[in-house]
């Protein structure tokens, strides 16, 4: 199928295929590059968030560890001695030492926290919060305490008991330790993380909402809505689109606080250079396609159309239409090619016309030669007949032959036209048959040709040689009376005149030999009369026209002269 297309179509298809291949390869390469970068962005975001989460968890772990170990301090044990009941000063002194130790811990700790010690048995409270008086309330510890950090009043709280098994019945414990820290510690760490990693981290809880950094924007609220709609796992990430901007959101659940550390990155901000490069490439491809369309259009107008015109011209020339001429308005190589083509077509046309004229002249000369060969043949027969009749003192026959001969020469010399009507030919044949009837008293003839056929034309002297052969070779050799019957009929296309004799006849081999000789070159061994008639008809009307022979029921020969009714008056 591809091999049947023209050159311009092949070039266009190859160009389109190459362009599609380039676009496919670039699109695939760009997609793979974006996929790799997105994967790296997701990994980096998750790594940064993990580092941040580990830092927060480390500080919380230190606070939790201190809350669990503070109950083992000797000062705490001494503060609970029963004998201090009668010595209040000593208990106050030990309480001051405990408070000083807790302040030293806060001073050494990264986060400033509030440490509160509840002594259920003594119903006393020691706290690092200098600005609040915290009385001991028995109903506060009537219920089991939470085993994890709890979020209340913008701070996180965590309880531990001594012994630890008393967490469910805190009122029966020796010591209840409460450690709390405000959320601004987390906000400070979020700000520090955003400053170092250029992210925008925050903390999220499905029930309490979010804790954002100091410069949190409205995007956090939209991401919070997405987080509430999702079923979050312990760790993961997802891609979402907000205000036609794509974000990658990663989250990690805090094992101690129960919140989620969340960070998000605008993908387009990082993928911007790649997107710009891709858009620039597609724009370049669009410009290239537009330029290619222009080039292909110019190529089609300047090359393809002239080639198609040249192909059509050569096809018409090959079918024999030598009048074809090509016209090209542009001044380029095709103008010169078209001019040379027109010159070639004109010269071929002139050559064909000259050859055709030469063939016509040759055919005319051949017809003249054939006709000239008939005239002497007939003249010789007539002269010999007159000589014989003169010897026989047959004055009437001599007069009749002389009159017929005069009519014949008047007939053949009065016009240069090689065609004659059937009426003229029959008049000539009738004169000839009357002469032969005078010479052979036993010969009779009849002529039956319809009147509407008499105006048809055929070559001059086409009937006379046939009638002459019928008399000489058919009637004369027999001693019985002979008869010659001339009939005619025609259709819209074909005319036929038959000459039938009751003469001696021919064998099948003789008749076949006679038929074969009609299409052979003339030599000295065959008669020229019927051969000339057949050749003249073939020259004028085609190979299907000419003479045909067949046997008659009476033993004679029937000769049919057939020609096409395509040359009329």
UniProtKB/TrEMBL annotation:
Pfam families: HAMP, HATPase_c, His_kinase. It comes from the Bacteria. It is a multi-pass membrane protein. Keywords: Cell membrane, Kinase, Membrane, Phosphoprotein, Transferase, Transmembrane, Transmembrane helix. This is Two-component system, sensor histidine kinase YesM. SUPFAM superfamilies: ATPase domain of HSP90 chaperone/DNA topoisomerase II/histidine kinase, HAMP domain-like. The chain crosses the membrane at residues 7-28, 280-300. GO terms for cellular component: plasma membrane. Residues 301-353 form the HAMP domain. PANTHER family: SENSOR HISTIDINE KINASE YPDA. One of its GO terms (molecular function) is phosphorelay sensor kinase activity. It is found in: Cell membrane.
């Amino acid at each position: 199928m591809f091999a049947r297309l023209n050159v311009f179509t092949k070039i266009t298809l190859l160009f389109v295929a190459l362009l599609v291949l380039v676009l496919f390869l670039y699109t695939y390469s760009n997609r793979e590059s974006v996929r790799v970068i997105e994967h790296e962005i997701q990994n980096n975001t998750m790594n940064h968030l993990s580092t941040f989460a580990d830092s927060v968890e480390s500080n919380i772990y230190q606070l939790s560890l201190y809350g669990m170990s503070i109950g083992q301090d000797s000062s705490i044990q001494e503060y609970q001695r029963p004998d201090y009941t009668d010595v209040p000063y000593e208990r106050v002194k030990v309480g001051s030492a405990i408070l000083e130790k807790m302040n030293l811990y806060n001073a050494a700790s990264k986060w400033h926290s509030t440490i509160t010690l509840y002594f259920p048995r003594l119903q006393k409270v020691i706290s690092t919060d200098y600005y609040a008086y915290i009385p001991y309330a028995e109903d506060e510890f009537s219920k089991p305490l939470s085993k994890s950090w709890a979020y209340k009043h913008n701070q996180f709280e965590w309880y531990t008991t001594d012994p630890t098994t008393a967490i469910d019945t805190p009122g029966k414990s020796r010591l209840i330790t409460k450690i709390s820290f405000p959320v601004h510690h987390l906000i400070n760490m979020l700000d520090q993380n955003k400053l170092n990693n250029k992210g925008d981290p925050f903390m999220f809880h499905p029930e309490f909402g979010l804790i954002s950094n100091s410069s949190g924007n409205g995007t956090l609220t939209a991401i919070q809505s997405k987080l509430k709609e999702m079923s979050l796992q312990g760790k993961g990430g997802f891609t979402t689109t907000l205000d036609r901007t794509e974000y990658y959101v990663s989250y990690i659940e805090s094992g101690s606080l129960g919140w989620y550390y969340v960070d998000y990155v605008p993908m387009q901000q990082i993928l911007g250079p790649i997107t710009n490069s891709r858009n620039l490439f597609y724009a370049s491809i669009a410009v290239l396609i537009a330029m290619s369309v222009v080039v292909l259009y110019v190529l089609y107008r300047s090359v393809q159309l002239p080639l198609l015109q040249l192909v059509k011209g050569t096809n018409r020339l090959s079918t024999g239409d030598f009048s074809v001429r090509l016209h090209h308005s542009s001044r380029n190589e095709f103008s010169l090619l078209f001019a040379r083509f027109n010159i070639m077509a004109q010269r071929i046309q002139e050559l064909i016309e000259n050859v055709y004229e030469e063939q016509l002249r040759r055919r005319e000369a051949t017809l003249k030669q054939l006709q000239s060969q008939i005239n002497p043949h007939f003249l010789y027969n007539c002269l010999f007949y007159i000589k014989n009749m003169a010897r026989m003192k047959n004055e009437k026959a001599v007069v009749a032959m002389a009159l017929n001969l005069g009519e014949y020469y008047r007939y053949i010399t009065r016009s240069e036209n090689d065609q004659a009507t059937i009426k003229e030919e029959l008049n000539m044949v009738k004169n000839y048959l009357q002469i032969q009837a005078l010479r052979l008293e036993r010969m009779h003839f009849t002529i039956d040709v319809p009147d509407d056929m008499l105006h048809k034309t055929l070559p001059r002297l086409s009937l006379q040689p046939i009638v002459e052969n019928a008399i000489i070779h058919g009637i004369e050799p027999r001693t019985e009376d002979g008869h010659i019957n001339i009939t005619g009929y025609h259709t819209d296309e074909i005319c036929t005149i038959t000459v039938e004799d009751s003469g001696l006849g021919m064998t099948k081999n003789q008749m076949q030999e006679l038929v074969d000789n009609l299409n052979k070159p003339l030599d000295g061994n065959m008669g020229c009369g019927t051969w000339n008639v057949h050749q003249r008809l073939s020259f004028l009307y085609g190979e299907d026209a000419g003479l045909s022979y067949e046997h008659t029921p009476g033993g004679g020969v029937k000769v049919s002269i057939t020609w096409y009714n395509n040359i009329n008056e």
